[in-house]
Every structure is written in C-alpha cells, then in structure tokens.
C-alpha cells in the first residue's frame, strides 16, 4: 500500500512538471530521469485515468481539456502533501525546516540570507531567480513560499508587504556628458545606448514606461536576465541604464555617475509576496520577519 501510494504521488509529480514544461525532454531534465521512463510514466497515468491528458505535436505536448482540469486537482493534492510535510518538520523543530524563495536578482538578498543562515543554520534555503510572471506562477503552484518582487504580482490570494522603497537613478559611465547632472529628462538621453534587462524584470518595465510616456524609442544595446549586473555593464562603458539607489552600497561607482531623473514614478518598491490560502512553515515565517527587520535597518 505504501509503495503504491508513493508511486501514485510520483506519477502526479511527473505529470505536474510535464504539464508546466509542455515538453518531455525538458521535463525529464528537470526531474533528472530518463525521457523514456518519463514517457512511460505519463502513458501509465493516462491508461489508469482512461483519458489522454495531452495533445501530441512532434516532441511537444499540450494540455487538453482533460489535462487542464486534472492539473488543477493535482496542484492542490501535491500542495496539501507538501504542507503536511512542512507541518511535521515544524513539529520536529526549526533545524529541520526548509523555505523556498524567488527574486528578480539574488544580489538583493545576499545580506539578508547570510544573516538568516547565521541565525538558523539548520534551515534549508532554496533560491530561484525569476521574472515577475514566473514568480506569480511559482507561488500559484507552491514551488516557492516567498517572493521578493520589485513589481506587482498577479494571482488569487496573494498578500504583500513593502520592505524597501527607494529612488531609481540613471547610471552613466565615468566621464559621461550627463555625469554630475540632476533632474535629467528622458528626452536628454533617448539617443544613448541603453543597458537594461529582458521583459519581465522591473528595470525593463520602468524603462519602457518612461520612454513611452515621453513618446520616445530607446536604443537597447544590452538585455540581460540579471538586473544586478547593470551597474557593472554601465561602468564598463557599454551604455547607460536605470539603477536602484540600493546599488550604491554594492558598486564601486563614482558619486557623480548616479544621476537623478526628472520623471514621475522613478522609484522601486521591493515587496515580500506570499499566498494567504496555504500553510506557511515556521521557516518561511521566520524568514519573512527577518527580512522585514533587515530592510528596515537599511
């Protein structure tokens, strides 16, 4: 009975990952199993249920209406099992706990997680670097407990707490014509090569908004998946870009290379986001409280 239950749960987990990836080989890589084994597991699950869960298109898979309905139930079942595991870990003490978090850039959390690990060395921490849409999905599926987001996340039953609110500045290379200026308008740097992130991260969303509000089309010369690398790329002379005031603590950057902007809404709000309708482990609650104190001290 125990073995059969475990196999059922494992099949559900396999199905969940395949449904999210919509691709067998990518799902197999994430699950660290052979693709033929995964394919057989999905086929057995469909045979047990008596209906196909996916439409096949070459190597790709797409959830059909049976699969979409089944996935909603599977997400709830596996979340309940994970919540039960965490409740047991809490009962056994914080030294056996775990917490999974996501952020647009891990660099924002270095000091926070270093301090938390020093106080709670037994807690297992898993860190994901994710865009805003990915974080919302990770909260929905229960893949993460907490998100540190710099833009609003959408989804049911989400709760937020602001940790940090800071000015966003224009970073320019040393010796740049705008160095030392204040109150610079978007029209004054629209023709400059601009360093930013790919869509889904806050610097890109803010840059798009600033330029669109001024009726301008920017020249994006570098689009990264790491917002924290923008300062170094600017300092290297690759272009100019938006940087949060917080970055001044981590970047050896001449003071006159941080330029104040004359445009509305040039600030970043770092918020802690979690789901209110699911069990929050003791480790997650402790980290949330620690994060509030950490950023307040900054």
Largest sheet: 7 strands, mixed
- Under CATH, the homologous superfamily of the largest domain reads Periplasmic binding protein-like II
CATH topology of the largest domain: D-Maltodextrin-Binding Protein, domain 2
- Terminus-to-terminus distance: 53 Å
Structural class call reads alpha/beta
Shape: globular
Mind telling me the CATH class of the largest domain?
Alpha Beta
Number of strands: 11
Q: How many structural domains are formed by the residues?
A: 3
Number of helices: 9
Report low-confidence residues grouped into runs of 5 or more: 1-7
Molecular structure report:
The protein has 298 residues and is α/β, with parallel strands linked by helices. It has three domains: 2-75, Arc Repressor Mutant, subunit A (Orthogonal Bundle); 82-163 and 270-297, D-Maltodextrin-Binding Protein, domain 2, CATH 3.40.190.10; 164-268, Periplasmic binding protein-like II (D-Maltodextrin-Binding Protein, domain 2), CATH 3.40.190. Helix content is 42%, strand content 21%. It has helices at residues 2-21, 24-31, 35-49, 65-92, 110-119, 132-141, 202-213, 230-235, 282-297, and strands at 54-57, 60-63, 98-103, 124-129, 146-149, 158-171, 193-197, 219-224, 241-244, 258-259, 267-275. The strands form three sheets. Strands 3, 4, 5, 6, 9, 10 and 11 form a seven-stranded mixed beta sheet that branches. Strand 7, helix 7 (202-213) and strand 8 (219-224) form a beta-alpha-beta unit. Helix 1 (2-21) packs across helix 3. The longest helix has 28 residues, at 65-92.
């Amino acid at each position: 009975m125990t073995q059969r239950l475990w196999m059922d749960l494992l099949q559900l987990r396999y199905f969940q990952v395949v449904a999210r990836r919509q691709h067998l080989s990518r799902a197999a890589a994430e699950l660290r199993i052979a693709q033929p084994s995964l394919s057989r597991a999905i086929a057995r699950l469909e045979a047990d249920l008596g209906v196909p869960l996916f439409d096949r298109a070459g190597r790709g898979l797409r959830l059909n209406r049976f699969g979409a309905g089944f996935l909603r139930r599977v997400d709830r079942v596996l979340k309940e099992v994970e919540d039960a595991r965490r409740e047991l870990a809490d009962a056994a003490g914080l030294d056996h706990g775990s917490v999974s978090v996501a952020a647009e850039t891990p660099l924002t959390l270095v000091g926070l997680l270093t301090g938390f690990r020093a106080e709670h060395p037994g807690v297992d921490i898993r860190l994901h670097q994710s865009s805003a849409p990915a974080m919302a999905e990770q909260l929905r599926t229960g893949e993460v407990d907490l998100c540190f987001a710099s833009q609003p996340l959408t989804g049911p039953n989400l709760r937020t707490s602001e940790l940090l609110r800071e000015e966003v500045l224009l970073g320019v290379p040393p010796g740049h014509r705008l160095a030392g200026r204040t109150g610079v308008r978007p029209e004054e740097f629209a023709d400059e090569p601009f360093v930013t992130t790919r869509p889904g991260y806050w610097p890109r969303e803010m840059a798009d908004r600033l330029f669109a509000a001024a009726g301008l089309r920017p020249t994006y010369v570098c689009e990264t998946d790491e917002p924290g690398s923008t300062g170094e790329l600017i300092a290297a002379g690759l272009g100019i870009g938006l940087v949060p005031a917080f970055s001044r603590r981590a970047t050896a950057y001449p003071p006159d290379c941080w330029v104040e902007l004359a445009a509305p809404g040039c600030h970043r709000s770092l918020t802690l986001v979690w789901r209110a309708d699911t069990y929050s482990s003791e480790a997650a609650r402790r980290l949330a409280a620690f994060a509030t104190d950490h950023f307040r001290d900054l």
